[in-house]
Amino acid sequence: MTTKKILSIIGLALLGIVLLIAVFTSWYTVDESEQAVIITFGVANETVTESGLHFKLPWPIQKAEVLSKETYSLQFGYNQNDQGEITSYDAETKMITGDENIVLADLIVQWKITDPKKYLFNSESPREILHDATSASIRSIIGSSLIDDALTSGKAEIESETRDLLASLIDKYDIGISILAVKLQDVELPNEEVRAAFTNVTDARETMNTKINEAKKYENQKRNEALGEKAAINSRAEGQKVARVEQARGDVAVFDKLYAEYRTNPEVTQQRLIIETLETVLPNAKLYIMNDEGGTMKYLPLESMQSVVPPAAETEEGGGN
Q1: Could you tell me if 26 and 32 are in contact, meaning their C-beta atoms sit under 8 angstroms apart?
Q2: What is the structure's pLDDT at 298?
Q3: How far is residue 206's CA from residue 193's CA, in Å, rounded to a whole number?
């Protein structure tokens, strides 16, 4: 075999290899959860977000960097593998609070790629930058917080402040990602003895709050009962007031009627009033009222009072019969 033929075979083989490379590197696919950046001779030209099959110039002229559009999670202070095993990094999570106490704080940062070009070309390692910015942010916020807030009721505020600070840092770095959420996983004291002491303090505080709430409940109950009793007394007093006013008006009306009758016939009215008064004072008495002619008028008889009647009155009564 001559040298010319050998060179021809080598040339055909190289051409075949180039053609195969051109065929297999001139297309790429993008899923619905992905996005791609087309790079031409090392320069990012366009971002492709539509899913499906796409074509480009073959390698090494163009290449496609496919990135996910889904949300990523950064585990700060620990690592959990696919089997669920957790590895803690205490040296990374140990930090000092504003009142000079040591705590261990680990968290999760949720983030996503919003600008693929900046993510690929504005930094060599955007994930490492995010990790360092997360460490700086949580240490800054914990360093200005009290230990009670970090361990109990202030966690939500710490999460919010950490997210805001981390988002501002990432915007300054301009690495093409955005922060969605920051979630504290665990904040605890560095050793068991201190944790036990703080747990006792926390339990005492919760017991105090429970007692305070029970006292307020009792106070509200007694106040409501007192207000109800007050309302009932006021209601009864108002009813008695109305009854007495009406009774007084009735008495005035009766007096006015009697006074009108008295002005019409004073003597008869006077005798009537005397009789009614005696009837009221002596309800069981047997009364005899004498007139000038010697006649009698029996009024409200009472057998027990016959012994006090004068004999002359009995004789005249018998003579009358």
Answers
A1: no
A2: 45
A3: 20
Greater confidence, 306 or 197?
197
Give CA–CA dist 24/42, Å, rounded: 20
Name the token pair of 300.
């409200």
Q: Which helix (H) or strand (E) covers residue 65, if one does? A: strand 62-68
* Distance, CA of 9 to CA of 265 (rounded, Å): 160
CA gap 155, 138 in Å, rounded: 12
CA 283 – CA 158 distance, rounded (Å): 90
Residue 3: half-sphere exposure toward Cβ, Cα within 13 Å: 0
Give the three-state DSSP class for 75: strand
pTM above 0.70, yes or no: no
Do the beta carbons of residue 103 and residue 189 sit within 8 Å? Answer: yes
Separation between Cα atoms, residue 209 and residue 215, nearest integer Å: 10
**Residue 245 and residue 314: Cα distance in Å, rounded?**
49
pLDDT > 90 in the chain, percent = 35
